[in-house]
Amino acid sequence: MTITEAMRTCRLQNPSTPEDLESHFSGMDGKMLTFEDKIVITGHYYNGPGKPCYYGAVYEWLSEDHSCEGAVGLREVSDVEFYHDGDAVVWGIGQ
Q: How many CB atoms lie within 10 A of CB 62?
């Protein structure tokens, strides 16, 4: 999925901040993890019964400010292809 498609389809913010991402991707809406020099998120997008409904996204820091209010930009987004959010996390960490 392209960045533009992901922003529209999955309602991903670009640019954003870790604080905003954590507010949006918590609980049933997904997960946010800071991993080394990137932020990995998983999100849920309903595709119908029995179909994969999770995607992964990776954000990167846009400045030296790595605080919760530092700017991050969307770097990569998977298709909605995972049956479990853990698989989306593994995908994100590998990017």
A: 13
Distance CA 30, CA 80 (A): 13
Q: Assign 3-state DSSP to the chain and report helix, strand, coil percentages, each to 5.
A: 30, 30, 40
CA distances from 20 to 12, 37, 42, 66, 91 (A): 11, 18, 14, 14, 22
Residue among 67, 61, 92 nearest 77 (CA)? 92
Question: Quick one: tokens of 54?
Answer: 């999770």
Task: Enter the pTM of the model.
Answer: 0.92
pLDDT (tens digit, 0 to 9) for every residue of the chain, 95 residues total? 888 998 998 889 999 999 999 999 987 778 999 988 899 999 999 989 999 999 999 999 999 999 999 999 999 999 999 999 999 999 999 99
Helix (H, G, I), strand (E, B) or coil at 89: helix
